[in-house]
Fold this protein.
Amino acid sequence: MALIKKVSTSSRNGDTSALLTLILKAFASNDWSADLYLTPIIAKISETNTSLIEALRRLKVYSQMAEKDFTRDMAIRALFQLVEGYVYIPIPEMKEAALVVEAVLEQYGMGIQNVDYAEESADIESLLNDLAKPDVVTAIAKIQGVAETISALAASQKDFENVVLQQAEGESVKNDLVSASQLKKNAIVEINTNLVGYMNTMAKVNPATYEATARILAELIDKNNELVKRRYRTDEPDTEIV
């Protein structure tokens, strides 16, 4: 039986990156420069893992964008619904103030939350500017909770833009990144095709140099594969999209 088994192709992107990092650490404890077959494999695994880590960072940012967009959508709904409630309140001064604010909101409509990210951002920024005009600010001051709701919308918009900026900074340098899933596949093919068989053979031919590292690799891959099996048995969904 082979000492090192092949990596499960059902491994998740993040788990594969963690495995690659541990494999690279195992190799880092020795000098392999004299092995002209192994050194390029290690270099390729390292390069792939660096790209995979970056791709996963991108995925995290995309996820954060969706979360921040949902938060600002909820802030938009809260503002429209609160003002609408004041429009029907039987207190003349508050109703008149609410109508002033509602007139501004109607120029945009609650549907701004359903357009694409960039258009929604532009609409929100424009809306906030209109709500900051002196006559509208005076009206807002007369209806309790509206100013605070507008502040919440402004804060959620700022949070969203901060995440967008992180994404833009990453894309400007690495706009041609291969997807995380493809990088994972490449890494697993490299390990299973070129590394596993070689290390198993060399652990037998030259155990003094290779066996200890081979055993570490075997343990790391076994743990990874067992994790995959546990997830499969529990039908845990895989939500990775990159």
User: Anything to note?
Assistant: Residues 172-176 have pLDDT under 50 and may be disordered. The longest helix spans residues 38-87. The chain has eight helices and no strands.
